[in-house]
Design a protein that fits this description.
The chain has 243 residues and is an alpha/beta fold. It has seven helices and 15 strands.
């Protein structure tokens, strides 16, 4: 696999170092090298990159601000001399975070993460093409912690929305899977015949609903509220199965 990459850094020495790393890495092709995010804004649309090595502290437009403007298909590796930006890098779904001065070893670790991510992305896209009937609707892929994770639909108990993130709670697994996606986007990807929205912050799998107690769905020790705006839809589903 060969990835097109671009570098954005206002420090000439850092820019030159990363250029030299890219040139001696067979898996990478340099499609742009820019001394500012403003300059990159002008040329990146004409020379798109799969992978972006992006400095954070830059004048006019910093790396964090610029990262929110690039297409979701471009993976970002932040480069900076200040480790306090690490958590901000995670919030914008960065693939990796490299602290200057950057060694070639650390650089290659980030490159290998990117290659792995794109390989998984290709695999996910191949699974999204027409599948044999027995495979359709069995699983989805979600991005979590720089990886693509396959989740079997029949293992999902419920999905919890947390601002820009969701938590996917699975049967038999204590720790939920965290993914940077909106509830609306997730709801659109789930088969409506199997999942139901019961609250602005909760989607549950219909066949996993075993107990409803005082307007709340019970999953073990967790009580999931049902809001008034979604109550009737849930009641209609329950009425279809009452004996």
């Amino acid at each position: 696999m060969n990835l097109r990459c671009a570098i954005i850094d206002d420090e000439p020495l850092a820019l030159g170092l990363l250029e030299s790393y890219v040139k001696k890495t067979p898996a990478l092709t340099l499609c742009g090298s820019y001394s500012s995010a403003v300059l990159a804004m002008k040329y990146l649309p004409e020379h798109p990159a799969d992978l972006l090595f992006l400095d954070i502290q830059m004048p006019e437009l910093n790396g964090l601000e610029f990262s929110r403007m690039v297409t979701e298909n471009t993976r970002i590796v932040f480069t900076t001399a200040f480790n306090q930006y690490a958590i901000d890098g995670y919030r914008v779904n960065a693939l990796d975070y490299l602290l200057k001065p950057i060694s070639y070893t650390d650089f290659m670790e980030a490159v290998n993460k990117a290659i792995h991510w794109f390989e998984l992305q290709q695999k996910a896209e191949s699974h999204s093409s027409p599948q044999p009937a027995e495979n359709m609707g069995k699983y989805i892929y979600v991005k979590s912690d720089y990886k693509l994770i396959q989740i079997e639909l029949n293992k999902i108990l419920y999905i919890e929305g947390l601002k820009d993130y969701i938590k996917i709670h699975l049967e038999g697994i204590e720790k939920p899977i965290l993914s940077l996606i909106s509830m609306r986007s997730m709801e659109e990807k789930l088969p409506a015949e199997r999942f139901i929205r019961i609250h602005r912050s909760f989607i549950v799998q219909k066949q996993k609903i075993k107990i409803i107690d005082k307007g709340r769905i019970v999953f073990g020790k967790d009580y999931i509220p049902v809001s008034d705006s979604y109550k009737q839809e849930l009641q209609n589903y329950v009425n279809e199965h009452i004996v």
